[in-house]
Amino acid sequence: MTQMDEARKGIITEEMKAVAKSENVSEEFIRRSVEKGTIAIPSNIARDIEAVGIGKGLRTKVNATIGTSTDILDVDMEVRKAKVAMENKADTLMELSVGGDLDAIRRKILSITNIPVGSVPVYQAAIEAIRKKGAAIYMDEDDMFTAIEKQAQDGIDFMAIHCSVNKETLKRLKRQGREGGLVSRGGAFISAWIVHNEVENPLYKNYDYVLEIAKEHDFVISLANGMRAGAIADSTDRAQVQELIILGELVDRAREAGVQTIVEGPGHIPLNEIAANVMVQKKLCRDAPFYMLGPIVTDIAPAYDHIVSSIGAAASASAGADFICYVTPAEHLALPFPEDVKEGVIATRIGAYVGDMAKGIHNGELDLKMANARKKLNWEAQFESAMCPNEARRIRNERPPADPDTCTMCGSYCAVKIVNEWLDDASTDVFE
Ligand code: SF4
Questions:
Q1: Does ligand 1 have an atom closer than 6 angstroms to the CB of 366?
Q2: Looking at ligand 1, which atom is closest to the CA of residue 401?
Q3: Which of 410, 412, 418, 421 should be mutated for ligand 1, with most atoms under 8 A from CB?
Q4: What is the extent of the structural domain holding 375?
Q5: Distance, CA of 314 to CA of 310 (rounded, Å)
Q6: Cβ atoms < 10 Å from Cβ of 20
Q7: Ligand 1 and 410: CB distance under 6 A
Q8: Are residues 399 and 336 located together in one domain of the fold?
Q9: How many angstroms does the Cα of residue 310 sit away from the middle of ligand 1?
Q10: Phi, psi of 331 (to 5 degrees)
Q11: What is d(CA 107, CA 224) in angstroms, rounded to the nearest whole number?
Q12: How many CB atoms sit inside 10 A of residue 77's CB?
């Protein structure tokens, strides 16, 4: 029985209890939300992991993607990247390897992680077709379902499946054109396959079979957004909106089948379009958890795209997005190294936290603790309230002040110290 089926029977599962505890909400709220499909808990029946809830009323979650490429195939580095992501408090991980022994890498990553792990099964189907038959367009329909089945059996907790890239969306895409083309790898494989074979996407045509596999293993379907814009100039275009309508219909069908879903969103999108995108997506997908990829809010800052995306994450979370895929400084340039993973996770966590303050998920309690610690010039308390205490401590220790109360920014002219001398002194009344 899936989490959704159990929720419908009024059962509160161990996973629901764990999510309620970590989010400080009632177990019944989680059960009702899983029942409605507004919260998803990715947890394959084959895995024993820390349950993570994604959706309405919960803290915005952060995903880190890792995985080999055809140029850089270093499995040990991917293991380090997974560990760095977890050390820096990523909530979930996506294993997106496209180079080397894909089964072995996936199983290795699953064996060292205790957070939900996601995948994109069409990568494996396409890459195996390229290796055996010379091109992704020679994938069999069976190859696509075999990859899903195999990854489900291995314990993948959520899968990005490209069911909504169909003839209708491609017709719209072709008719309107694109300044920045198509940037979804899975979307590219599937669209090339449809165009070459002149038949409908099997993942769309046989969606009921996808649902059957998901139900058997209770993984969450992350309905992939193959038409997401890869350039600000293409944001919120007709192809994206056409696909979104189909995504909404696929959410309905998954709920009927008792399968949990998450819906992927943009992509590259200007700041002023984020709130509208979240609103329309939530409306058409009946409040399904919304997974923003980034988003990237300007195209012109490669090497700093983690900052670009942190801004997008803050705006998305404040508008109601539930799940954010990180972006690293290497985005658009190269395969990320472990230090890029660290920067990406932290930048996205900051964006999500800022958005959650606006969303009312937290009341700025930590910010208040930090403000009080700063006023008291209590450095240890400041580090305790910091999102990244080690980095904060490193910077201070590298440049020690002459007066240990202050820091080297203002030194003897520390504004806080000067004002503290009279502000909280009951014997001092400046107006008498
Ligand atoms: S020295 Fe300046 S920056 Fe440092 S704590 Fe004092 S007021 Fe703040």
A1: no
A2: 1
A3: 410
A4: 365-423
A5: 6
A6: 20
A7: yes
A8: no
A9: 26
A10: -50, 140
A11: 23
A12: 17
* Rounded Cα distance, 286 and 265, in Å: 14
Mean pLDDT value across the chain: 95
**Centre of ligand 1 from the C-alpha of residue 408, in Å:** 7
The verdict on 331 and 403 lying in the same domain is no
Q: Which of 409, 412, 419 is the best mutation target for the ligand 1 pocket, counting ligand atoms within 8 Å of the beta carbon and taking the most?
A: 409
Which pLDDT value is given to residue 226?
87
Q: What is the pLDDT of residues 312-326, one digit of tens each?
A: 999 999 999 999 999
State whether 397 and 328 are in the same domain: no
User: CA–CA separation, 334 vs 328, rounded Å?
Assistant: 10
Q: Answer yes or no: do 371 and 354 share one domain.
A: no
Q: What are phi and psi of 60, to 5 degrees?
A: -65, 130
Residue 22 lies in a domain: no
Together in a domain, 306 and 372: no
Which token pair is 89? 């408090």
Same domain (yes/no): 283, 408: no
Task: Give the number of domains in the chain.
Answer: 2
pLDDT bin (cut points 50, 70, 90) of residue 343 is very high
Residues in CB range of 429: below 8 A, 6 or more apart: none
Where residue 197 sits, what CATH number does that domain have? Answer: 3.20.20.540
- Radius of gyration, CA atoms only, the chain: 23
Q: What is the DSSP string of 50-73?
A: ----EETTSPPEEEEEE---SS--
419 lines ligand 1 (CB under 6 A): no
Closest CA to 92 of 324, 265, 318: 324
Ligand 1 proximity of 416 Cβ (cutoff 6 Å): yes
Give the three-class secondary structure for 81.
helix
- Residue of minimum CA distance from atom 3 in ligand 1: 409
Q: Is 415 in the pocket of ligand 1 (CB under 6 A)?
A: yes
Helix (H) or strand (E) holding 269: none
Q: Within 10 A of 104 (CB to CB), how many other CB atoms are there?
A: 11
Residues 56 and 196 in one domain: yes
Q: From the CB of 388, is ligand 1 less than 6 Å away?
A: no
Is 406 near ligand 1, meaning CB less than 6 Å away?
A: yes
**Ligand 1 atom 6: the closest Cα is on which residue?**
414
Q: Please state the rounded mean pLDDT for residues 62-91.
A: 97
**CA angle, 110 as apex, 104 and 114 as ends, to 5°?**
165
Q: What is the DSSP letter of 268?
A: B
Q: How many angstroms does the Cα of residue 399 sit away from the middle of ligand 1? A: 13
Q: What is the pLDDT of residues 119-139, one digit of tens each?
A: 999 999 999 999 999 999 999
